[in-house]
């Protein structure tokens, strides 16, 4: 795209948003618009509640889609209370909301928008221009994995919003009732509270009931969801005027006093954070000063200057509310979304630094899956070749990938590789480039706060590399008694030693080197080590790389005791390429014991056999499963497969190869228009439970549902 066309596109995107976050136009027709009937079986979607009548009637809970929209990942107990420091709230507003993320079971866009910089935020708000915005469960699952709270949005705006407020605020009882309905929704769907945005002018006589609504919502949320939040948006004042204050003051503080914080409108001036902090007193961290990434009259200009406002808020020691970071995606910033997204969030990182640390608890597992890709793998086996997206697939993200920090010049860079076969999900970390002889590179993956106990810890990871590329892990640990130490995990320490990498201890991993061991149709090798570091805390986790066999000049250099005499004239570069598929950290004791197939109840519901005019058969079906009584176990992911069986008259069965059809985060999966080839007489569905440690039950030990083909 030419720079001129890109400029025009940016201006158009800018103009489609008006001055305030409640001023955007509603999007084009959506799947939930009439004649949509939420009670009828269909592909599960996330959708908002658009009327007070629907909110009051609890009709959402009678929807076919409701069970699919429950998040399955709870907020970690360590994240229940917000930290006593300045914080970052991220408000996601992109193209009216409910885009690729509305498809609960995933969509087919491999380039769908996603966030993977969870370590830079504390609270995530899902925003759209509807009355009640319910966060799609994919966002809650991903955010909770990383210890980030998730809020929905309650919004009234324009003339329609004034009419809504007349009903909402009719009495103290009506205000309480609607607050309780919002609490029920958040509790049932598993998210953590609400952003309340009243962007209409009110009669001053309605203010007492508005205060009752905010206060009752806060009290009921706190009683139902420990650690929940209600955040007030800076719009209507205590006098009923629609007058954005751009600071915390006596015009909006009465609402602030009734809830957990205020999202200050983003056209504040240099002195407003200081005055807001003064008004807030001990609650200064509950003041979230708005920053509009699109730059609409926002302090510092937003966009690639978002850090200007962040630097001021850091100095004034108040919190920040970053609005619409999807600007990077919407305006197609160059050179591509992955690069631009990392660059933009890098501004946040450089200004405020890391806010979330992981790993913090065991088990810890990451396959570096961002929730989209061009293929899908499970434990090293590629199960699908179709493009896909589903943020619910995200495990712990590794946004700390940065420029190599080895001692020598190198062109090796580490990034998420969506092209080559992954170990699990749709991507892996690949380090590639040219590496100088007798040098190494290192890149930080995670910055943890994992306290290690007396029992041994098992670390396993999958690697695929070129013949001459050596790959390892480098761990930083510290202890109050013994101080800092480091461990290098690699099959051969000599190239790293020659290259000058400093470490205190080495461990040589055991390597499973057969495809049968790793179920891989590519050359993934599983490396495993066990270590005991009682009293230590695991901090930095790095990937490191070196060349196994340096060039001839380097061999001569190894014989010299003074490596510093080497010059660019007698050193060379050789290609380096290695990939990391996953990392798993466990205690030495088994984490997951999968229940046998007979312990499950698995059923088919809403079965519809379809025969089109060309004689092609297909099936609509909801598969649901649950453990029988007596099994106190839960799983947060299930892979779903189908076998299309041809049962012959002699009883023999042919074509029993399982086909992957998707995954669920709840105990149900809906199949739409599943094709049934000619000759197939039965379908067998397999539900494969997966543990929090990334392990999966063997398919031949998983529960099944068999249906005879009809029609």
How far the N terminus sits from the C terminus, by CA atoms, comes to: 51 Å
| Overall number of strands | 33
How is the biggest beta sheet arranged?
Answer: 8 strands, parallel, barrel
Mean pLDDT: 90
Uncertain regions spanning at least 5 consecutive residues: 1-25, 403-408, 516-520, 553-570
- Rg from alpha-carbon coordinates: 27 Å
Helix content: 10-25%
The strand line-up of the biggest sheet is: 1-2-4-5-6-7-8-9
> What is the overall shape?
globular
Q: How many distinct helices?
A: 14
* Structural class based on helices, strands and sheet pairing: alpha/beta
Domain Cytosolic endo-beta-N-acetylglucosaminidase C-terminal: 593-709
Subcellular location: Cytoplasm, Cytosol
InterPro entries: ENGase, ENGase_C, TIM_ENGase
Keywords: Cytoplasm, Glycosidase, Hydrolase
Q: Summed up, what is this model?
A:
The protein has 711 residues and is α/β, with parallel strands linked by helices. The protein is built from 14 helices and 33 strands.
Can you walk me through this structure?
It is a single chain. By secondary structure, the protein is an alpha/beta fold. It contains 14 helices and 33 strands.
Could you outline the blueprint of secondary structure elements for this entry?
Elements: H1 3-15, H2 52-57, E1 88-92, E2 123-126, E3 132-133, H3 137-145, E4 149-157, H4 158-168, H5 172-189, E5 193-199, H6 207-224, E6 229-233, H7 253-256, E7 261-264, H8 272-280, E8 287-292, H9 306-316, E9 319-323, H10 327-330, H11 337-352, E10 364-366, E11 372-373, E12 376-378, E13 381-384, E14 388-389, E15 413-417, E16 428-436, E17 440-451, E18 457-465, E19 469-479, E20 483-490, H12 494-499, E21 505-507, E22 510-512, H13 515-518, E23 525-531, E24 537-547, H14 552-559, E25 573-587, E26 600-611, E27 617-627, E28 637-647, E29 653-654, E30 659-664, E31 668-676, E32 682-690, E33 704-708
Parallel strand pairs: 1-2, 1-9, 2-4, 4-5, 5-6, 6-7, 7-8, 8-9, 20-21
Antiparallel strand pairs: 3-4, 10-25, 11-14, 12-13, 15-16, 16-25, 17-24, 18-23, 18-25, 19-20, 19-24, 22-23, 26-27, 27-31, 28-29, 28-30, 28-32, 32-33
Helix pairs in contact: 5-6, 9-11
């Amino acid at each position: 795209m030419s720079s001129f066309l890109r400029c025009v596109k940016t201006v158009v995107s800018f103009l489609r948003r008006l001055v305030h976050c409640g001023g955007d136009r509603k999007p084009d027709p959506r799947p939930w618009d009439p004649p949509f009937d939420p009670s009828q079986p269909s592909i599960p979607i996330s959708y908002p509640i658009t009327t007070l009548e629907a909110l009051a009637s609890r009709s959402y809970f009678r929807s076919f889609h409701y069970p699919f929209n429950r998040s399955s990942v709870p907020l970690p107990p360590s994240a229940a209370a917000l930290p006593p420091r300045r914080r970052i709230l991220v408000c996601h507003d992109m193209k009216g909301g409910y885009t690729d993320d509305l498809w609960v079971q995933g969509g087919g866009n491999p380039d769908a928008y996603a966030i993977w910089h969870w370590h830079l935020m504390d609270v995530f708000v899902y925003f759209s221009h509807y009355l009640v915005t319910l966060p799609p469960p994919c966002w809650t699952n991903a955010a909770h994995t990383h210890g980030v709270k998730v809020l929905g949005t309650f919004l009234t705006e324009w003339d329609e919003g004034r009419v809504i407020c007349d009903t909402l605020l009719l009495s103290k009882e009506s205000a309480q009732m609607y607050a309780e309905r919002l609490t029920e929704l958040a509790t049932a769907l598993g998210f953590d509270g609400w952003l309340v945005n009243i962007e209409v002018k009110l009669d001053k006589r309605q203010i007492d009931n508005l205060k009752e609504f905010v206060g009752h919502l806060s009290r009921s949320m706190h009683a139902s969801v420990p650690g929940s939040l209600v955040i007030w948006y800076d719009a209507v004042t205590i006098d009923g005027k629609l007058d954005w204050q751009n600071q915390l003051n006596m015009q909006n503080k009465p609402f602030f006093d009734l809830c957990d914080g205020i999202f200050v409108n983003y056209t504040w001036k240099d002195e407003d954070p200081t005055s807001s902090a003064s008004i807030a007193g001990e609650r200064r961290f509950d003041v979230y000063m708005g920053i509009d990434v699109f730059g609409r009259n926002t302090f510092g200009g937003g966009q690639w200057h978002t850090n200007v406002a962040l630097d001021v808020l850091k100095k004034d020691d108040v919190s920040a509310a970053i609005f619409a970071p999807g600007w990077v995606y919407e305006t197609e910033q160059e050179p591509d979304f992955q690069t631009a997204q990392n660059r933009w969030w890098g501004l946040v990182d450089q200004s405020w630094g890391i806010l979330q640390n992981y790993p913090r608890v065991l088990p810890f597992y990451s396959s570096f899956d961002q929730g989209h890709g061009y293929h899908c793998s499970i434990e090293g086996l590629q199960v699908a070749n179709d493009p896909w997206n589903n943020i619910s697939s995200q495990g712990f993200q590794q946004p700390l990938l940065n420029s190599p920090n080895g001692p020598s010049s190198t062109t090796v860079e580490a990034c998420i590789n969506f092209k080559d076969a992954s170990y699990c999900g749709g991507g892996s970390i690949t380090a590639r480039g040219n590496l100088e002889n007798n040098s190494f590179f290192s890149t930080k993956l995670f910055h943890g706060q994992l306290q290690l106990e007396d029992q041994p810890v098992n670390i396993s990871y999958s690697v695929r590399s070129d013949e001459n590329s050596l790959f390892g892990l480098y761990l930083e640990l510290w202890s109050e008694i013994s101080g800092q130490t480091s461990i290098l995990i690699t099959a051969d320490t000599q190239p790293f030693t020659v290259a000058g990498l400093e470490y205190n201890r080495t461990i040589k991993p055991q390597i499973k080197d057969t495809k049968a061991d790793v179920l891989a149709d590519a050359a993934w090798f599983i490396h495993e080590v066990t270590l005991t570091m009682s009293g230590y805390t695991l901090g930095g986790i790095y990937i490191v790389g070196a060349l196994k066999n340096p060039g001839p000049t380097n061999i001569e250099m190894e014989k010299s005791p003074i490596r510093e005499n080497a010059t660019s004239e007698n050193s060379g570069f050789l290609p380096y390429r290695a990939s990391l598929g996953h990392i798993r950290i466990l205690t030495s004791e088994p984490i997951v014991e999968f229940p046998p197939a007979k312990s499950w109840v698995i059923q088919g519901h809403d079965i519809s056999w379809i025969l089109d005019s060309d004689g092609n058969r297909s099936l609509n079906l909801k598969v649901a499963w649950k453990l029988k009584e007596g099994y106190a176990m839960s799983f947060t992911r299930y892979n779903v497969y189908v076998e299309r069986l041809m049962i012959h008259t002699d009883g023999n069965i042919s074509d029993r190869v399982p086909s992957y059809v998707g995954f669920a985060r709840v105990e149900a999966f809906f199949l739409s228009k599943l094709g049934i080839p000619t000759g197939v007489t039965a379908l067998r569905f397999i539900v494969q439970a997966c543990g929090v440690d990334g392990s999966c039950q063997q398919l031949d030990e998983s529960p099944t549902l068999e249906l005879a083909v009809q029609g």
